[in-house]
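User: Sequence in, structure out. Go.
Assistant: Echoing your sequence, followed by the structure tokens.
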Amino acid sequence: MKNLVVIGYGGMGGGFHVKHALEDGVVNLLGIYDIDPEKQRKAETNGIYSYSSLDEVLADERVDICTVAIPNDSHLETVVKCLEAGKNVICEKPVALSCTDLQKMFDAADKSGKLFSVHQNRRWDVDYLAMREIYNSGAVGEVFDIESRIHGSRGIPSDWRCLKAHGGGMILDWGVHLIDQILQIVPEKIKSVYCELDNITTKEVDDGFKLHLLFENGCRAHIEVGTYNFISMPRFYMRGKKGSAMITDWRENAKIVECTHWHESEVLPVEHAAGLTKTMAPRDDVTTRTYEWTRPVADVYDYYRNFVRAIDGEEELLVTHPQMMRVMRVMEAAFESGEKNKVIDFE
């Protein structure tokens, strides 16, 4: 079993990484390090060893893996130090604030010969996994449009996430997850990127965005994060040439309506609002089939299982350097598009 130290005892460090390490038995938790003495005392109160400094962590030859769960702007320096000390490194998202910084991390990993990856835990979200299965199965035919949304109504958090200097904003917070998911669903090359940024509750960083990706095969993806939405739109919506699929909420199964017969012998007009329409007349059970997609089974700690096996050379990393860089490039293009109000040519 590999020995783990979590650097950062905040929400994700203490609330996720430490919790799972203690419960799931995939890694052995040696302790934590946090620059905040109060968090160090809290860890010790919870029976967890607290290292006195990062140098103490790096000097401990027992440490196999360092998980970095600190504010975004501190990732680069800490990740590089851990790699240079001969530790395998997992970093919380967003792994970096620029492609340039990310490449520096890759270079440090290559030089050290150690593994380095980002904790893309939302690859184990069951709603995303269902939509990926539907896309790959052909259940709705050739997909030409997919929408992915996360909506909330509490505004952007008031901690470092609302500060540009610390890598705040929704593209770097939730966007990094939704972009990664879409790129795992649609593997084709991206042709162009267009993004609209929201600044409803703050001018400092984006508190929401609407991102449009056009792929070379003609498929379009719409990725949206909103923090000022008091009525949420569906989590996922997918259209293909044989039907549509929708997930209203991550707790719900995917609903599929498959078009079994395109042409009808007679379409009767229906009353709609103040007039008649044949174009929008609803279909019936004769030409469609409606059913639910079986909910996938997922275990988020498979991320750590894979990382441990990759250290031992038994598996390839699930979250690779090219995938990490591609997501970072999309985020950079999204910021550029939003600031310039223009479509950005991608590949």
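User: And one key feature?
Assistant: Residues 124 and 300 are 5 Å apart (CA to CA).
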